[in-house]
């Protein structure tokens, strides 16, 4: 069975044919490191990690290159730097903010079971590539200089004779619809309402670099040009897959396509555009004003990262997901069972019943259903399949120990009570035996009696 992926540009599920099977290339928009990542940010991390693992499974680990960028130049970063480190020069304060938040982001997504990308470029390390693309766009007549800004003209792109995509094709919008449906920056130096910034002058104290296109004042890049530059540097002008959240289709990804295709006179930037759906919390949009804004870091205090990962993958990546406490509890129980059954088993080849749904546009809900089907059969295939999906990173004992530690339950006290209960059962004092069982249950401990004795675990 072939891999088929839904392409946002063509709006259909297409067979995946890499440009070069020995060098499969994928780019995914990463974080802007100004604060802790929220659970919505975790969705593309987990979704495209599964795709990265699947591509490595199909083509070999050495033949897949995954690039996920870090945006480390942004107004929000500047604002936080000034707020948190008022006594430092702004550039030094910015470096502290990006180092701290970048380190925390890595710790959080590592806990989610996500593999590190092949390359993780930072925007500030690719200013030269941004300037070169901008110079190409100005020279080609697709961008212009105005009051120390450089702006891209979608009208100029759509007026080109041939060989370029239509601006608006990715988001399926006309220029008029974009003006009507988006917040358009009003500036006297803009030639058209949909023109967007490639480069702008820096304010005093802000990060700045020598400007392109003969501009004397130093400046800094606009947001969209960053990804065009980093994708070009690490994957080339034309590559296989570009991914991100559905909120990035317009304007960010639309503008990426425009910049790259016009700068290098290409019809395509990526052969497949993939976007994950939105996330809401307990049936409401996540927002700080509603008090339901949840960071990955906060959730990891109460749940192992694999629980968050499974909870995310139970919904197909293109569908909206409702993040609920009930679903988290169910995911935790499922993982408890998988760890008991398969964590200490030598992994076999991933089962076809699990891989085939993944080949159908990453149908993780069907893949998870297939995992349940392996539960009472081929345990080695279950273990291999779980590892393909990024689970079973610990031994069964480590998993159980983590639960016990997180619960705050005193293992020695539990063992003492179980011994007392065993003695009570031995003398047929069932009233005392039941009392101790209830006491353990109140502590959050579930016990199970068998012919080999009594075992216990933390109840979810």
Protein described:
- The structure is a single chain.
- The protein is an alpha/beta fold.
- It contains 17 helices and 15 strands.
- The strands form five sheets. The chain has a four-stranded parallel β-sheet, sandwiched between helices. Strands 5-6-7-8 form a four-stranded antiparallel β-sheet. Strands 12-11-13 form a three-stranded mixed β-sheet.
- Keywords: Aminoacyl-tRNA synthetase, ATP-binding, Cytoplasm, Ligase, Metal-binding, Nucleotide-binding, Protein biosynthesis, Zinc.
- A motif ('KMSKS' region) lies at residues 285-289.
Q: What can be said about this structure in brief?
A:
The protein has 460 residues and is α/β, with parallel strands linked by helices.
| Category from helices, strands and their pairing | alpha/beta
Total strand segments: 15
Helix share of residues?
Answer: 40-55%
Identify the overall geometry: elongated
Number of helices: 17
Largest sheet geometry? 4 strands, parallel
What order do the strands of the largest sheet run in, or round the barrel if closed? 4-3-9-10
Tell me the span between the first and last alpha carbons: 39 Å
Q: How many separate domains make up the residues?
A: 3
CATH class of the largest domain: Alpha Beta
The CATH architecture name of the largest domain reads 3-Layer(aba) Sandwich
Uncertain residue ranges: none
- The proportion of residues in beta strands is 15-25%
Radius of gyration: 26 Å
- The CATH topology of the largest domain comes to Rossmann fold
The name of the CATH superfamily of the largest domain reads: HUPs
- Taking all residues together, what is the mean pLDDT? 93
